[in-house]
Amino acid sequence: MEYMSDLFYAMTMPGLETLAFSEIRAAIPETELVKFMRGIALFRTTTSAENLLDLRTTEDVFANLAHIKGLRRGQDALRVLHSATLNADLAGAIASWRRAHHGARPQTWRVVSQMSGTYDFRRVDAGQAVIDALRKTMPRGIRQVEDDADLEIWLWLGGGDVLIGLRLSDATMRHRPYKRDHIPASLRPTVAASMGWLSLPTAEDIVLDPLCGAGTILTERGLLAPYQQLLGGDLQEQAIKIARRNARSADVDATLKNWDARALPLEASSVTRIITNLPFGKQIGSREENEALYTALIQEFDRVMGPDGLMVSLTSEDRLWDRILQEHGWRTQKKVVFVVLGQPASIFVSGRA
Ligand SMILES: C[S@@+](CC[C@H](N)C(=O)[O-])C[C@H]1O[C@@H](n2cnc3c(N)ncnc32)[C@H](O)[C@@H]1O
Predict the structure, then answer these.
(1) Among 23, 260, 277, 299, which residue's CB has the most CB atoms within a 10 Å radius?
(2) Where are the domains of the chain?
(3) What is the pLDDT of residues 27-64, one digit of tens each?
């Protein structure tokens, strides 16, 4: 067990943890990886907690209270959870929370439990073991509540590994304040940011999202790093209106137009990056429609992409897109598979072969 107060962990969409850790390393170079788990990067850093809240590819960030390896399935595990919580450096974690919250004094606490894998005890009983310990160690004046607590202690049971941590982030880390309007099939901002990160951003980039929907990808790219130009468009007029509003409220300068991505009003070789979330599967079109659409799209992307351009594309039609890319002379350098709305999706990072 480890009870160090310089341990933190980031929760991500499952599959995006290594990518999120590369963002953490770039932001805070002295950070050391301790372990990857499913949807989690556990790391050690001496940075101040508030520096962890600006991460864009992470859904939530925690001060680690305990990391238990190889928890058994049986009832004795509850005693292990209880004593790990009793021994945790709660004061250190609360100090991190206060730094992350501009010195605020927490008034309330609660426990949130998440369990995957099979155990001989119930999730509520595991949560209760942690609650019982915290009732003994929580500073006076901070009271336990059912919902909306200042301090959220999350218990995460993921097979052999268990993490108990104090949540430093709040909902704004994953639900961006700029994104007030949604459209169907709109992308999670942390996924859009991950795609921006994978595009190896440079200040010279002319970035295109030809199927921009609510504009999440362009907005996140704009927030991630400097750029020369952000261009986007969509078939639906309504999507463009929403995309404009979102970009504007994030203070991102994007040029957005109503267009058909199969016939873009752009010059040949005029962009350096394409970052896009393709319509796929049941979400938007049928398989046959997707095949025809994807073929038309790659021809158009081929035309507008500059010589050393890089494309980051997301789809659940993994095999179809892989084949079409190859047939049109594109080479995929990297593929990141993750889970979105319960189904696997792949992010392709590709360039011309
Ligand atoms: C998967 S969604 C993109 C979602 C977007 N990334 C977001 O976060 O909101 C695909 C978008 O492609 C648009 N679309 C579909 N076919 C198109 C076409 N031929 N030209 C332009 N846009 C198209 C749809 O209107 C939809 O908004």
Answers:
(1) 277
(2) 7-173, 189-352
(3) 999 999 999 999 999 999 999 888 999 999 999 999 99
How many A from CA of 72 to the centre of ligand 1? 47
pLDDT band at residue 353, thresholds of 50, 70 and 90? confident
What confidence score (pLDDT) does residue 181 get?
A: 72
CA distances for 229 relative to 147, 216, 218, angstroms = 43, 15, 10
CA of 185 to the centre of ligand 1 (A): 8
Tell me, what amino acid is at 74?
G
CB 298 within 8 A of CB 324: yes
Instruction: Please tell me if the domain spanning 7-173 has the same topology as the one spanning 189-352.
Output: no
Terminal-to-terminal C-alpha distance of the chain:
48
Question: What is the pLDDT, as a whole number, of residue 2?
Answer: 40
Could you give the C-alpha distances from 123 to 29, 115, 134, 157, 301, in angstroms and in order? 37, 6, 17, 9, 49
Predicted local confidence at residue 72, as pLDDT: 87
Atom of ligand 1 nearest to the CA of 314: 1
Residue ranges around ligand 1 (CB below 6 Å): 183, 185-187, 211, 213-214, 216-217, 234-236, 239, 260-262, 277, 279
Specify the residue with its C-alpha closest to ligand 1, atom 16.
Answer: 235
Residue 214 Cα: closest atom of ligand 1: 9
The fold for domain 189-352 equals Rossmann fold (3.40.50)
Question: Tokens for 277?
Answer: 């979330």
CATH topology of domain 7-173: VC0802-like (3.30.2130)
- How much is the pLDDT for 1? 40
CA of 209 relative to ligand 1 center, distance in Å: 9
Residue to mutate, 182, 235, 304, ligand 1, most ligand atoms under 8 Å from C-beta: 235
How much of the chain is in helix, strand and coil states, percent to nearest 5? 35, 30, 35
